[in-house]
Write a sequence for this structure.
């Protein structure tokens, strides 16, 4: 009878709050949420203070709606509303939760569940792509900022009479880019892709594949990005690779923000 009592009490509260009338008729006669009861210590006749407290109630209610759903999910997965993630032993994310890049405060973050059905090869391809995009965006972000403070002297294209100083900042620079210059950029990118990026070994890449995805993603064997040697200490190397991933992720967001703002 417990559930019956709960349901009956909820129905009584709902009906009595509406004066036992229909929804539209009842809501037209009162302010939303105003059931005529003034809670002690909270009710006030001050209009400004009442508005402030009502706004706080709505904000807290929104937060509580998200919080209770999160507690339901965490309880269902770990056995407690504040359960430890390590208790969720059946998680499909276990295979990749210790990989490089799993960092605070989000930990293993895959909101779309892309890796639920992924194998190791798929994960390595995605990690190689992430590292490459991060590196490109780090360079792009610096390259977006530097021209505001420094430009090379001389001419960019003597045949067109185009000086470096004539090239505008940001996206507008594409309007001044000679087509031969654009072709050189594309050719250089293609060269890097097909030769393994100066690693001395041309590897099987193909469509949507990177030359490093079969080994260690992002490791082209040249000490990227300094080309002055490799890090020997395993812990230092791990920390620097994690920093590179974090900085690359930030740079991907940053360059997109710059594009939009420009």
């Amino acid at each position: 009878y417990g559930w019956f009592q709960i349901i009956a009490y909820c129905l009584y509260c709902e009906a009595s709050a509406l004066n036992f009338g229909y929804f539209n008729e009842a809501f037209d006669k009162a302010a939303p949420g105003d059931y005529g009861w003034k809670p002690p210590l909270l009710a006030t006749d001050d209009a400004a203070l009442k508005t402030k407290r009502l706004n706080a109630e709505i904000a807290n209610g929104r937060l509580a709606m998200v919080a209770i759903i999160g507690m339901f999910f965490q309880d269902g997965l770990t056995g407690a509303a504040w359960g430890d993630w390590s208790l969720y032993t059946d998680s499909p994310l276990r295979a990749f939760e210790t990989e490089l890049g799993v960092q605070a405060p989000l930990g293993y973050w895959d909101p779309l569940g892309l890796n639920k059905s992924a194998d190791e090869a798929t994960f390595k391809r995605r990690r190689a792509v992430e590292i490459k995009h991060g590196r490109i965006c780090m360079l792009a972000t610096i390259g977006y900022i530097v021209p505001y403070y420094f430009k090379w002297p001389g001419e960019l294209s003597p045949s067109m009479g185009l000086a470096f100083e004539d090239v505008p900042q940001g996206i507008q620079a594409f309007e001044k880019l000679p087509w031969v210059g654009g072709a050189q950029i594309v050719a250089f990118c293609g060269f890097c892709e097909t030769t393994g990026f100066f690693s001395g070994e041309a590897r099987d890449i193909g469509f949507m594949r990177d030359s490093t995805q079969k080994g260690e993603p992002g490791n082209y064997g040249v000490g990227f990005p300094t080309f002055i040697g490799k890090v020997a200490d395993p812990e230092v190397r791990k920390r620097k690779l994690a920093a590179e991933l974090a900085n690359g992720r930030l740079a991907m967001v940053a360059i997109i923000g710059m594009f939009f703002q420009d």
